[in-house]
Amino acid sequence: MSIFAELLAGLGLLFVGLKLMGAHLQHAMGREVRRLLRAATVSRVSAFLCGAVAGAVTQSSNAVTLIAANLVRGGVFQTRQAIPVVAGANVGTSALVFIASVNLKVAVFYLVGLVGLAFHLRMDKRAGWRDWMGVMLGLALLFLGLDFIKSAPQELDLAAAAQAVGSLLTPTRGFILGCLLALVTQSASTPTILAVAVVQARVMGLEDGMFLVIGANLGSGLATLISAGDMKGEGRQLCHAAIQVKALGCLMVGLTAVAAMLSGVNLNQWLGHLGGGEPAFVLSIVFLALQLSGALVVVALVKLSERLAVRFSPPSQEDRLSRPHFIHDQAVRDPPTALDLVTRETARLVTQLPAILPDLDRQDGGEKPARLAAWKGAQAISAATDRFLTELIDQRLTRTDLDLALRAQAQVELVRALQETLHEFGMVVDGFRPPPPLVFNLSESLRAVLLVLSDAMPGESMELDLDVLDTLTSDRSELLDRIRRDLATSCAGGGEEARALMRATSLFERALWLVRRLCLALRARANEDNPPEWQSSSLTS
Amino acid sequence: MQIETEASGEDTVLKVSGRLDTLNAKPFEGKLLDAVKASNGAIVVDMAGVDYVSSSGLRALLVAGKAMSPHKRKLRLRTLQPQIQEVFDISGFSALFEIS
């Protein structure tokens, strides 16, 4: 019973340690890991190495895959560029397995001692120190857990246990057990560390341990796919790449092992020689071989890997809508062209704004999923444009270009705020079935204003359109206040509907204000492009 | 939607009835632009019979207004029903056109 308790405590400490370490590392180095992954796009090798470092730091290929998938979805890099990152992350996770194979007790003592002293000296009052103290404490707990797991089987009647395990476990069962353990723990390292402990205590043979590790490797690939949840399209493609790394590793190491067994090689004996008589080290090498063989093949055949990933998870409508049409990485090198591309991209975003709003003139109000996809896509492009501008500003720009870039960034920020407001407004409108007259009037009025705004993009009639928009977005607080007062009187008891109507009027007002600010920005830009010859005109003059 | 066109001196009057929605906006815009081309005076749109205006309907009016603007000609609207007047007020279009 005490063996079971020690094993359970070891696992508990391992999970708490991983969680604690991960959370504090995220705070302390989250930005660096993201920066590292962004910088990874230079070449396959750099991507692979960056992935390996990220995998070693986070000790979770799952986490790195999901971060990379989100970066792909956000347009930071393409699937093909991210595949080596995922492959590298798998190799990086081997670090923990190797650590588990050495004596950790002394390290635990030092870590706990250092953290305790740091707390006593109140070093935790500084956020930066606090995070690193959390990382060290997490690491200490993790090591302690590993030590518990490794020492638990030593209290067994080893001979009886070895006989029982030997009679129950076959390579196939070991493989399935490893697969299941990885699915439950969402990790290949945890079952491998358990196997290291059991093999080290001579309760399990090296051969069975190896098949358990192979199974755990495949299981963790499936776990990645499960963790991806409702992620679709391009975001999910990297999860398929992660499975390819795992499956290829299993295939290569597994086939080698089976071939050796079929040709009469005593695998237990051979593996024993491989690790110099240290079973824990052998399994660590097997684990590394699994990651490395799969990863290297996938990196070498990255185009094929991408094709397969795309086949299993083709780009979704949202992916297509999230793709910038004009800006691209290389354009940053030529600031005037880059600024021109940003202008075009922003103009395109503005013309897409009506697609985020419900179309109440249609019986279905415009399909909600299509509007949602339009909003998410527009958001992704705005974010990509903003990042592009930040990169551009980071370069040595001329004073004029810097000024233009900063103004373009402010414009993109306005477009993003407008997208958000329109989405919120659409959600309020969707809450009404059917929409009352006030909601219809607000929604269709806003749509009309946005249609004029999309016409006002650089072109022949831009000045006239801006004049029209100036009138359309003029202060309407008196009218809207009257509407709100009427609402408050007619729905004196309050209620959900009245609150929603009030919210709709507020969002409408905010949207108009944002359109007005955007027009001012557009007019300023237009005036600079064509110095002040034009004369104000309106439709009533 | 029905549109009757009649001349009133130099001006052209379009009597519109029915719905100015996505479906009818294009034909309505076409009629307005035809009227803009056919005369040199103001265009008056009588909307007494219009009981529904959507963003597409508003846009059609705006297109005609913009076509007349360079020639300093006017697009006037008249006899708007109260619910239609509210759409014009909320959207700000009542500040763009002369409404009587």
Automatic annotation (TrEMBL), chain A:
Q: Name one GO molecular function term.
A: sodium:phosphate symporter activity
Question: Mind listing the UniProt keywords for this protein, alphabetically?
Answer: Cell membrane, Membrane, Transmembrane, Transmembrane helix
Would you name any one GO CC term?
plasma membrane
Q: Which InterPro entries match?
A: Na/Pi_transpt (IPR003841)
Record's superkingdom?
Answer: Bacteria
Its recorded name reads Na/Pi cotransporter family protein
Q: What PANTHER family does the entry give?
A: SODIUM-DEPENDENT PHOSPHATE TRANSPORT PROTEIN 2B, SOLUTE CARRIER FAMILY 34 SODIUM PHOSPHATE , MEMBER 2-RELATED
Topology of this chain in the membrane: Multi-pass membrane protein
Phylogenetic placement of the source organism: Bacteria, Pseudomonadati, Pseudomonadota, Alphaproteobacteria, Hyphomicrobiales
* UniProt record, GO biological process: sodium-dependent phosphate transport
Which is a Pfam family this sequence falls into? Na_Pi_cotrans
**Source organism:** Azorhizobium oxalatiphilum
- The UniProt transmembrane annotation reads 46-72, 84-112, 132-149, 175-198, 210-229, 241-261, 281-302
Instruction: Write down the NCBIfam families for this protein, in alphabetical order.
Output: Na_Pi_symport
Compartment annotation: Cell membrane
From TrEMBL, chain B:
Q: Name one GO molecular function term.
A: anti-sigma factor antagonist activity
Q: What range(s) does the STAS domain occupy? A: 1-100
Matching Gene3D superfamilies, A to Z? STAS domain
- Top-level taxon in the UniProt lineage: Bacteria
InterPro entries reported for this sequence:
Anti-sigma_ant, STAS_dom, STAS_dom_sf
Which protein family is it in?
A: Belongs to the anti-sigma-factor antagonist family.
Q: What is this protein called?
A: Anti-sigma factor antagonist
Native organism: Azorhizobium oxalatiphilum
